[in-house]
Amino acid sequence: MRQSWLQIDGLNLDQAGRCQHYHQATDIAALWCSQCQRYYACYHCHDALCTHRFVPASRQSLAVMCGNCRYRMTVAQYHTGAYPNCQAAFNPRCKRHDTLYFKPDE
After folding, report:
1. What whole-number distance in Å separates Cα of residue 19 and Cα of residue 13?
2. Is 93 helix (H, G, I), strand (E, B) or coil?
3. What pTM, to 2 d.p., does this model score?
4. Engineered SS bond to 43: which of 15, 52, 54, 58, CB 3.0-4.6 Å?
5. Rounded to whole angstroms, how far apart are CA atoms 63 and 38?
6. 38: which strand partners?
7. Would strands 8-9 and 38-40 be described as parallel, antiparallel, or unpaired?
8. Measured between alpha carbons, how far is 14 from 11 in angstroms, rounded to an integer?
9. What are phi and psi of 45, to 5 degrees?
10. How confident is the model over 5-42, as pLDDT tens digits?
C-alpha cells in the first residue's frame, strides 16, 4: 500500500518520483538529504530547490525510498538491484552517484 505521507521533492515529478533530470522507467529511487531530512528525486533537484548542497546520508539509515511503492530501505538493500517490497528494478547507473548520495562506510 502506498503511503502518501512519504513525499518525494523534485522538479516536474511524475507519480513514481521521476524528475526532469532522470526520467527513464527505472529512475524511481528517491534519496535522503541528511540536512533537510527529506527525500529528493535527485541531487540536481535538491540543489535547485535548496540553499545548500545535497548532504549524503548514512549507509545504515533508510537513505533510499522507492518512488513506485514508497518503501524505505538501507543502501545495502538498494544495492541488490530491485526494491524488496515491490520488486521494481532501479537504474543500475545510479551507483555512479554513490559518493554524492551516501557517506563512506562508517
Report:
1. 5
2. helix
3. 0.88
4. 54
5. 10
6. 33
7. parallel
8. 9
9. -60, -50
10. 589 999 999 999 999 999 899 999 999 999 999 999 99
